[in-house]
Amino acid sequence: xxxxxxxxxxxxNLLKGYDPQEFFKQMQGGFSAYKLPNFDSGAMxxxxxxxxxxxxxxxxxxxxxxxxxxxxxxxxxQQAMADATDAAKGLASSSNPQDLAKKQAELVQxxxxxxxANSAELTELVKSSxxxxxxxxxxxxxxxxxxxxxxINKMS
Length: 156
What we know:
The chain has about 160 residues and is mainly α. The chain has one domain. Helix content is about 85%, strand content about 0%. The chain has 4 helices and no strands. The longest helix is centred in the C-terminal third of the chain and has 59 residues, at about 95-155. The protein starts with 11 loop residues before the first helix and ends with a helix. About 0% of the residues are buried.
């Protein structure tokens, strides 16, 4: 029996039937059905095409950022496991209680410092990824606003 998932973020089925070319043909047909004076439907269609391209590009950048974040977290986890193994070996070799307590304190301090450094690295990675996506979206938004203004000016 196949298991079904109810993941609200899985848009696979929704996007299976999406054809961008068909979408643009429908838009063009809609624009041409209404004969607005001085309205450049081709320019509007081109603007919408650029919007879709920007959306795809922003999604690709977000996906790449997520992949990089996961890769970095995986490397950090592998290093943490190696460090924990080394720490366990080091603690096991210590028979003196004072020496053992000293090693434990050093390990805790080292682990906290490493965790803070990893946190800062991950934070910077997420920040730079989000800034790149936001920059793409903002640039396209501003260009789209200018295209609308230009279209309105042509209609006057």
